[in-house]
Each structure stands twice: as C-alpha cells, then as structure tokens.
C-alpha cells in the first residue's frame, strides 16, 4: 500500500497562455522563480528537453546552508500553450504533475497545477506552503516582465 494523494493549485495571471507556457519551459525564465522562498535555481542547474520523453531537471540550492535538491522528471505531454505534463519517477508512485493554461479571453490566464501520486511528505502543510511560495515567486516574476 502506498500513501499517495492529489494536490491542485489554481492561480490567475495577467498574461497570455503563450508567455506563461514559455516561462514554465525555458531555463532563462525558470531560474527567476523556480523553487520555494529561500532557494535559488541557477541557470546551469536546469535541464529542459521539451518533448514527450525529454528530461526536465531543476537543482534548487538552499540559500541558508548551500544544500541542494534536484528534481528529475520526464515530460509526458507538451502541448504549447495549453498543457504540460511531467512525471517524477524517483518520487514514490511516480508523482505526475499536469499544468494547464486556460485563457480567460481578457488577457488573463488561469493556471491549474494538478499533481497525482503525491507522497505524504509533499502533502504536508509545510510542503504545500513552500510550493505556494514558488507560485508567489512565479506571479512576482510575471509582474516584472509584463507591461
């Protein structure tokens, strides 16, 4: 028996789906927001092979103690600018993340991040709070690069 579950996060951003998709798939964007508050993700720690079966890896560095954590995933679906799916095989049960970009028709886009096979440790309140700070960093980055 595995102890896995699901998580869903929703955010609305004042940007078109194409820009949001590019931010989530291009290292020069990812380096500005990937990871929770208190971490950095150096550009040379990001691998994006944007195709089904391609690698997606990020190495986050803790700003306090210098320790690092590498997330290794494989893209399953790449449908610019509407859908992005990857699986982290090293995570128990193979955690699957699906990010969808829904245009609201007024220049805004709803981004829904849905994860399945999420280990209990990742579902803990502290882990979810950390994930939400990453979403906050993404929103702040978008505000800096959009008019």
Could you name the key traits of this structure?
alpha+beta; single chain; 4 helices; about 150 residues; 8-stranded antiparallel beta sheet; Alpha-D-Glucose-1,6-Bisphosphate, Chain A, domain 4
Sequence-ordered SSE layout with sheet pairings:
Elements: E1 4-13, H1 17-25, H2 27-30, E2 39-40, E3 46-48, E4 55-62, E5 68-79, E6 83-88, E7 95-103, E8 109-119, H3 120-123, H4 125-145
Antiparallel strand pairs: 1-8, 2-4, 3-4, 4-5, 5-6, 6-7, 7-8
Task: Describe the overall structure.
With 147 residues, the protein is an alpha+beta fold. It has one domain (4-145): START domain (Alpha-D-Glucose-1,6-Bisphosphate, Chain A, domain 4). Helix content is 26%, strand content 41%. It is built from four helices and eight strands, in the order βααβββββββαα. Strands 1, 2, 3, 4, 5, 6, 7 and 8 form an eight-stranded antiparallel β-sheet that branches. The radius of gyration is 15 Å and the shape is globular. The chain starts with a strand and ends with a helix. The mean pLDDT is 94.
């Amino acid at each position: 028996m595995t102890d896995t579950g699901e998580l869903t996060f929703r955010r609305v951003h004042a940007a078109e789906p194409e820009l949001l998709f590019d931010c989530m798939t291009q290292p020069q964007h990812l380096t500005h927001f990937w990871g929770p508050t208190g971490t950095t993700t150096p550009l040379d720690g990001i691998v994006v092979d944007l195709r089904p079966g391609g690698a997606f890896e990020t190495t986050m560095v803790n700003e306090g103690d210098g320790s690092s954590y590498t997330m290794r995933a494989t893209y399953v679906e790449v449908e610019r600018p509407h859908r992005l799916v990857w699986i982290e095989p090293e995570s128990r049960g193979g955690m699957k993340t699906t990010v969808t970009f829904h245009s609201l028709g007024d220049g805004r886009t709803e981004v829904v991040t849905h994860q399945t096979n999420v280990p209990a440790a990742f579902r803990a309140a502290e882990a979810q709070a950390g994930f939400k700070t990453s979403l906050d960093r993404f929103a702040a980055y978008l505000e800096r690069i959009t008019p």
